[in-house]
Design a protein that fits this description.
- By secondary structure, the protein is α/β, with parallel strands linked by helices.
- Helices cover about 25% and strands about 25% of the residues.
- The chain contains six helices and 15 strands.
- Strands 1, 2, 3, 4, 5, 6 and 15 form a seven-stranded mixed beta sheet that branches. The protein has a six-stranded mixed beta sheet with strand order 7-8-9-10-13-14, covered by helices on one side. A two-stranded antiparallel sheet has the order 11-12.
- A hairpin with a 5-residue loop joins strand 13 and strand 14.
- It is globular and about 50 Å long.
Amino acid sequence: MKVAIAQLSTSVDKASNLEKAIQYIAKAKGMGADLVVLPEFYMVLATPKTGVLPAEAAEPLDGPFVSALKEAARKNEIYVVCGMYESKAGDDGRAYNTTVFIDRSGQLLHSYRKTHLYDAFSFKESDTIIPGENKYKVVETEFGKIGLMVCYELRFPEIARQFALQEADVLLVPAGWMAGPMKEDHWQTLIRARAIENTMFVLGADLVGPEFAGRSLVVDPMGVVIASGGEEETLILADLDLERIQRVREKLPSVKHRKPEFYQ
């Protein structure tokens, strides 16, 4: 399985962002990728500094933004994962922070509304975002089982463990990981930790730009970084040897060794 991370900047111009996404989806396919992951809330940059509210930019899942991604996935015969803001009927001025997972035929396989919001480091995501109430479930593909969580949720190991207990092979983590003291270190350490403790591949797809850390990476089930990016826009590619998962789990059966009867 060849995967790609489109480590991109985003802006307040939704049309421009969509055009760039479509270009990178085609580029990923042209380089042989089976799946491409774009960052969290890539659809539009809605932050206190831009003055754009998520609810103002939000669309339904059958709106023009997702429809265009579905067409790009179908045209290029590639899986596409991308972050957006999803509108809610009768909204209270907030929107969902949603990630869509589209298959090669352009069908929406799964949409995940971020459940654990970034109310930390003097930021309060819950002011503008509605927390999701999703169950954590793997997405079945021809490559295996894939889990999906978003950004801040890396700090909650129990979420990734839910996917491990469903025998996930790959965990995708679209992010808008903020830059700042210790942030890059936390980002890379947590990605590797989630891979090691759950013996699965983990892909962290981060935004770049003045507010964001970049440093997207692909980590194997032993915690080895097999591909990574810096602070600029780039397309990061990696070949995932899915048989490596079983070899690692035979050496390190830590998930099987759990003793849940002792956990309270």
